[in-house]
Design brief:
By secondary structure, this protein is of the alpha/beta class. Helices cover about 35% and strands about 25% of the residues.
């Protein structure tokens, strides 16, 4: 497999606070790479930096996607290359129905809007099309429902790399299983996934994992080994333990 994404020594400072301190990893095609760590350690900041969101421009390092340097690219240019982000808190689109929102996923790929594709994507995330297609996203849907509909939109977009930021946040057990199915769907279709989580359940879907602490990756390796270390030394944080960067076996 070839490297789809390479993050090389990324440093980010906002308002004189250094948030990312030399982040470095790579993701291959069809690989699920998980970042795990406590709240506030820089995981979501990294996601925003990869997408090129305003104010999240690294002062040092390189982001290379499909062989192209993304550092100077705008968010829409990165999206056109096949990079997309599913937000931890799905956005509310005022006055937009589920049908209209999902149609954007097809239009973004230059495809005609297909009712069958939209319905298939909704069924894949356990949303009944007949009950949801004409509902407004901003008024009648729960956070968990909006999150699943956002996942359906990603399925329709068919990105080359998707960043899932805490995809299991605020969803029930049934939806959690659907998220796992969506992850497997992307993997089988060769889509790379950056899975940002603090959930042990989500970590089971990863091929590799890394532990983030205060803006740095301190360990990389097999998900089980990273999970064990995280539970043993990070919950709560054991400051007396020397957290040297290491590859876990």
């Amino acid at each position: 497999m070839s490297k789809l994404l390479e993050v090389k020594d990324i440093h980010l400072t906002i308002d004189e606070a250094e948030i990312l301190k030399g982040m470095e990893f790579s993701i291959e095609q069809g690989e699920v790479f998980a970042l795990i760590g406590p709240n506030g350690c820089g995981k979501s900041t990294l996601a925003y930096t990869l997408m090129g969101i305003n104010n999240y421009q690294p002062q040092k390092g390189e982001i290379v996607f499909k062989g192209k340097n993304l550092n100077k690219m705008k968010i829409n240019e990165r999206a056109k290359l096949g990079l997309t982000l599913a937000w931890q808190e799905p956005a509310r689109y005022h006055g937009v129905t589920v049908r209209e929102f999902l149609s954007l996923g097809l239009k973004s790929r230059g495809e005609d809007v297909s009712e069958k594709k939209i319905r298939d994507a909704l069924n894949q995330v356990a949303i009944r099309p007949g009950q949801y297609l004409d509902r407004f996203i901003d008024k009648t849907l729960s956070g968990g429902e909006r999150k699943r509909i956002e996942l359906a939109s990603l399925i329709l977009m068919e990105p080359d790399l998707v960043i899932l930021d805490e995809p299991d946040s605020g969803v029930d057990v049934v939806a959690l299983n659907n998220i796992g199915e969506v992850i497997n769907h992307f993997r089988e279709n060769g889509t790379g996934i950056l899975l940002i989580t603090h959930s042990e359940e989500m970590l089971h879907y990863a091929d590799r994992a890394a532990l983030v602490c205060e803006g740095e990756i301190i360990r990389q390796g097999k998900p089980d080994a990273i999970s064990d270390y995280f539970k043993s030394y990070c919950l709560p944080c054991h400051k007396e333990v020397e957290c040297d960067t290491e590859v876990a076996s």
